[in-house]
Amino acid sequence: MDSFEFNKISGAVLGTLLFVMGLGLFSDGLFSHAPLKAAGYDLPGAVEEHGHGGAAAAAAPAEPLPALLAAADAKRGEGLVKPCATCHSFDKGGAAKVGPPLYGVVTRKVAGLDFAYSEALKGKGGAWEFNALNEFITAPASYVKGTKMAYGGEKDAKKRADILAYLRTLSDAPAPIPAK
Ligand code: HEC
Question: What is the fold of 63-169?
Fold first, then answer.
């Protein structure tokens, strides 16, 4: 092999090596990814934390009722009680329909009117404070088992707060919004 041929061969080998290295750099660039912010797998401690956080987050109500009420809007609530109006009147001195009239219902005695209430509601006791109303409207049949109120419930806490804010205005002396 003369030196010229040797140079050709080594040049080709070197060229190939450079090409492969270049390819490596290039594909690194192509397939690069941002560095992971956290380990890609849960460490034993982290797993436990996740479990707790998840359970607590699922169990805890989104926001306490007073905070929701403070942010609520009675005008929006007036729009949201349309389904209730099939069965309830909201006017002062309004007559009973399928359900009892709701003017002044906030803080009123539960089943406190002259109305053919269910035994279940008559046996409930207490008054319609914001908390009680909130629970009742969430799921009437679970809050008062055996209630005659055939309404599925409003599951959106913010919408319920708007409804309560509206019901509160149906009074000559609206009840104060609970501070906490
Ligand atoms: C399908 C008819 C119907 C609909 C819709 C309905 N209600 Fe009722 N509601 C009733 C009946 C009937 C009762 C009496 C329940 C009982 O005696 O168990 C009642 C009772 C109530 C009471 C208790 C009143 C009292 O004097 O103790 C409240 C508060 C109430 N409804 C609010 C609402 C609100 C707010 C809505 C809408 C989000 C609504 N209802 C939708 C029929 C209805």
Answer: Cytochrome Bc1 Complex; Chain D, domain 2 (1.10.760)
